[in-house]
Amino acid sequence: MKRLGLISLILTVVCTFTSATKEWCGIVPLHSTRADVERLLKVKPEDCGGNACIYDLPDKTVFVLYADEPTCRNDDATTSWKVPRDTVIQLTVNFKTPQSFAALDIDVSKYDRVPDKELRGLFYLSDYGQGVGMEASGDTVRAITYYSAQKDDNLRSPPNSTPSANPTTRTLP
User: Fold this and answer.
1) 3-state helix, strand, coil in the chain (%, to 5)
2) Per-residue model confidence (pLDDT) at position 169
3) What are the DSSP E strand ranges found in 13-172?
4) pLDDT, tens only, 47-74
5) pTM beyond 0.85, yes or no
6) CA nearest to 77, candidates 128, 133, 29, 21
């Protein structure tokens, strides 16, 4: 039991947000793999469905979306990148208890801010160039999402040249 507590403490310290690096716990979208995630988090997924897994940690829940296949179909977020299967496309860290901007060393002024249109007090912060988005309320962060950084645009698959068989499918920008 003490060992589990120590591991939790280490993960909390090591896996805090730092504005200098747009990664979380050593996991970098479009560069890290499913094996990297499980090695770094030291836990197996709580639940997986298709190309998405949920990892339950003592103070946060982590949702990870993985590349489905390396075929550049560009039909959705999981197939629009030139990366191997099981590469991290996006990860979202949901805090079980909202964290203050100060505790996470986040300078809010460096992010674009958009208020939620329906939920008063909720807003979103984003830095598309760095590949980071946050869901926040007041002076606390509820979740941080890490996605492709602008420097990785070279890994984006080109739009399909032939129409999709599924008319509801759209090409990502």
Assistant:
1) 15, 35, 50
2) 38
3) 47-49, 52-56, 60-66, 88-100, 112-115, 122-127, 132-137, 140-146
4) 999 899 999 999 999 999 999 876 666 6
5) no
6) 29
Note whether residue 170 is domain-resident. Answer: no
> Residues in the chain with pLDDT < 70?
1-21, 70-74, 77-79, 160-173
What number of other Cβ atoms are within 10 A of residue 107's Cβ? 8
Q: What angle do CA 83, 73, 71 make, to 5 degrees?
A: 45
Query: What range does the domain containing 121 cover?
Result: 29-155
Q: Alpha-carbon distance 8 to 116, whole Å? A: 33
Q: Is 10 domain-assigned?
A: no
* DSSP per-residue letters across 67-92: ---SS---SSTTSSBSS-TTBEEEEE
Alpha carbons 165 and 1: distance in angstroms, whole number = 53
Count up the domains in the chain and report the number.
1
Cα(8)–Cα(169) distance, integer angstroms: 41
Query: Could you tell me the CA-to-CA distances from 36 to 59, 65, 70, 171 in Å, in that order?
Result: 20, 13, 18, 29
Check if the beta carbon of residue 157 is closer than 8 Å to that of residue 80.
yes
